Amino acid sequence: MKQILISSDSRSIGEKRVAITENGKLVEIFYEDFQQDRLVSNIYKGKVEDVLSGLGSAFVDVGEEQSLFLSRSEINQAILRSRGFDPNEYPPRINKIIHEGESLIVQVKRGEIGTKNPQGTTKISLPGRYWVFLPKDSRLGISRRITDDKETQRLKDIARNLKEENEGLIARTASENASKEDLKRDFNFLLGTWKGIEEEATKVKPPHLLHSHAGIVRKIIRDRLLEDVDQVLTDSKDVYEDILDYIHYLRMDEFKDSIDLYENENTSLFSKYGVEEQLKGCLKREVSLESGGYLAIDETEALTAIDVNTGGNVNHKNQAQAILNTNLAAAREIPIQLRLRKISGIIIVDFVDMYDNEDQQKVINELKDSLREDRVPADFIDMTPLGLVEITRKREGESLADLMEEYENDV
Questions:
Q1: Which pTM was predicted?
Q2: What secondary structure does DSSP assign to 92-160, as a single string?
Q3: Calculated CA dihedral for residues 79, 85, 88, 91, nearest 10 degrees
Q4: Which of 8, 49, 96, 330 has the most CB atoms at less than 10 Å from its CB?
Q5: Residue 2: other Cβ atoms inside 10 A
Q6: 13 pLDDT more than 50
Q7: How far apart are CA 114 and CA 98, in angstroms?
Q8: Which domains, and CATH codes, for the chain?
């Protein structure tokens, strides 16, 4: 059973936490109201305050505490074309493209991490239920979770008919088997939103906020409420009613019966469903496996190292089978831990040594399949000559350890 649990009983006013559980096991946790969450996805009319040609970057004032860091690679195709450059060629020096004092429409791509400024982009993206609209880039993409070739081609054909030549569209997971009418309606809403942003930008002086993100609850409902979710449960009547209004607005009324209000004054929602208890232990170094083995997870600034151990699972009639069982269990658990702990960058996994090539391939295949469940791009890269497996995962903000530290300090 897959559940989305939305808790508003936090000790910090206005803060919400969202947990996703599968058969009672916590697999993802989200916190709202930290600085980076407040800014990420917001769109501003900003003013370029400094261009660092040697670093290939610039800083853009958007009226927040810190300016946005804008790298050369985040300049969109439309700007390059307007300045006489071919967007398909390697971009020129940044001081040839943008200049100090000029205005730009920028979006916050990533919040501040440590002492690093928030990262901005001019490659605007507007997510809807079925599409991500890219008004300034011509890319056309399909969610990697949609694997049926006929459906992929159908969505590509619809996207080409909807968008203009220099616009882009990415079909989201929810678009699979969606009706043409619903896909068109979602696109028209995103297009209208962008037109409104552009119109407002012509009327205001920088720095100015043009568009703010939907908030964590609506974002989770929009992105994660799919057929595999059995229940959405919240302890806030206001949130409950807002979800019902939002799914009606999105024409997702088929999910109405799965939305429930938790009303128990004696036990908090997260405590009732074991989330609080699991949160206490989710950052422990050792993670038990169903096979009887365990993972040892060590996060460093450079990379994350995961060591797979058989633990007490050694008294097996077939030792090779015991090792295979442990490694398969690890291959299923590691992607869950990456999602839960929000681990990013380079991950090195030391599986228990296997001497059978067929067993080794079984573990690699299991790991690849499990990584596909991750909505954040996470990929199996290679196996090193020493038998270590390398994984990379895109950075999507702070790790869970950092978020929980901020949460505890805040309360």
A1: 0.76
A2: --GGGT--TT-EEEEEEEE--BTTBPPEEESS--EE-SSEEEETT---EEE-TT---HHHHHHHHHHHH
A3: -80
A4: 330
A5: 15
A6: no
A7: 27
A8: 1-32+215-281 (3.30.420), 39-213 (2.40.50.140), 283-400 (no CATH)
